[in-house]
Design a protein that fits this description.
Bound molecules: zinc ion
Strand content: 15-25%
Distance between the termini: 36 Å
Number of strands: 19
Structural class: alpha/beta
Number of helices: 14
Shape: globular
Helix content: 25-40%
Number of domains: 2
Oligomer: single chain
Length: 442
């Protein structure tokens, strides 16, 4: 199934194969108002695998200026993220830096959530680079040098001129978004001190595959990394991954530690790297077949979900969607869900109220809408927050509203005899309803 028209974004090989075709979709983060429906742009979204360098990637290009025009995500507003980045800064400082003599730079620093702790740890030079003016403007700390720009090789040369080589470069949850990875990585290579460390965190391919998290796939996330793919990529820049650490954030991320590759000394990579490499080979992350069978499982979840929704609509049941995130928009558009299935969407972020979901045009309302217009079913698109959502909506559950989870497999939960039970809705499966404890479902 090699496509002659496409090349791998990393190694330029034509040996790439289509894994999932999402069709032509509205951008997952582009919520809109009714007067914008007619002008809404859609973009082809196809997931490809490269059999030469093992990169799983969205092959289609969307201009970054379109993607990140209205960026209203402020990291520091989220308490778990603040805590995460504080311990991150402490850990890497202790491991690699002499604070008072060191410089740190973060690519895509957002509102400075990681940089503030570096300042507290008395790191001498702290620099943040971010193209979104509205978020970087919120950094008021005079100890942080905030540069409102894209990080490019050219920009890296300028920074090196001004501040010298940098001891530690960080990049968190941005390494999957960057259109021109070659230019950014060349910039890192240029700017990193000889004994410097490049540290980055990014969503790991493992949970995407193991837990069928295909809803993580949208234009804003171009790349889905395995260690194997990253190793192949960094080789081209004389850089190497020397350590890895799984991070339990954003439904499964990995932190990678990278340094200049130096043939003259034989500094060995950590056992973590050797083991992860081995595990990825065992799982077949270097084989096309693995991703083809993944695609089959993804297609099955769509078939199951749409069969359930069709049955419920035939019974005249009303259904509301919960969590209007980018992830929800992938599920909605991939499955072909629209206002024939879902009456409206609920989201807790006031900024989204009154807007409509991209592509499917479902209205987003506050949770209070459930009171006036209580549905028979709530479809939890933000399924990774199942426990939190169920706890918040316990009253509705007890009142008889049923909850649908679309992934990793389609399930229906209801309240029976004082407990949450997983209902059996499948026609072929005649097992009894099973009792679910909140802790076992995550
Ligand atoms: Zn490739």
């Amino acid at each position: 199934m090699t496509n002659d028209n496409h090349q791998c974004r990393f190694c330029a090989s034509p040996n790439v194969s289509q894994i999932i075709d999402f069709g032509s979709v509205g951008l997952a983060g582009a919520f809109l108002k009714p007067d914008q429906f007619a002008a809404e742009k859609k973009y082809d979204q196809q997931l490809y695998f490269c059999s030469d360098c093992y990169l799983l990637q969205i092959i289609n290009k969307v201009p970054p200026t379109v993607l990140f025009k209205d960026y209203f995500y402020f990291s520091s507003a989220i308490a778990t993220l603040r805590k995460h980045f504080r311990s991150y800064a402490k850990e890497v400082t202790e491991k690699f830096l002499i604070p008072k003599k060191s410089s740190v730079l973060e690519i895509g620093c957002n509102d400075g959530i990681l940089l503030k702790p570096f300042v507290e740890l008395e790191v001498k030079t702290v620099i943040g680079v971010d193209p979104s003016s509205n978020v970087i403007e919120t950094i008021k700390d005079p100890n942080i040098i905030a540069i409102n720009d894209f990080f490019t090789r050219e920009r890296a040369l300028k920074i090196r001129e001004d501040y010298g080589p940098i001891n530690m470069i960080c990049a968190n949850n941005v390494f999957a978004h960057i259109e021109d990875m070659h230019d950014v990585t060349a910039g890192i290579k240029t700017l990193l001190a000889d004994d410097g460390v490049f540290v980055f965190e990014v969503h790991y391919i493992g949970s995407l595959i193991d837990e069928i998290q295909y809803d993580m796939i949208y234009h804003e996330h171009l790349f889905y990394y395995s260690l194997l793919a990253l190793q192949n990529f960094f080789k081209g820049f004389d850089l190497e991954v020397f350590d890895v650490k799984p991070v339990d954030i954003h439904a499964g991320s990995m932190r990678y530690y990278v340094r200049h590759k130096d043939e003259s000394n034989d500094k060995s990579v950590s056992l973590n790297v050797i083991n992860l490499q081995k595990r990825e080979r065992e799982k077949g992350f270097d084989k096309l077949e693995t991703f083809q069978s993944y695609a089959d499982k993804v297609a099955q979840t769509k078939t199951d979900l749409m069969a359930l929704l069709a049955d419920l609509k035939q019974e005249q049941k009303s259904i509301v969607g919960y969590g209007a995130s980018g992830r929800a928009n992938t599920t909605i558009q991939y499955c072909g869900i629209d206002d024939r299935h879902i009456d409206y969407m609920i989201d807790d972020a006031p900024a989204k109220h009154g807007y409509y979901t991209p592509g499917s045009h479902l209205e987003i309302k506050p949770r209070s809408a459930l009171e006036e217009n209580t549905p028979d079913y709530i479809l939890i698109f933000a399924w990774s927050f199942f426990n939190e959502i169920i706890e918040k909506n316990m009253a509705y559950l007890k009142q008889g509203v049923k909850f649908i989870v679309p992934l990793p497999e389609v399930k229906v939960f209801s309240w029976q005899d004082g407990q949450i039970v997983e209902e059996n809705y499948s026609e072929t499966d005649d097992a009894d309803a099973k009792i679910v404890s909140m802790s076992e479902h995550k």
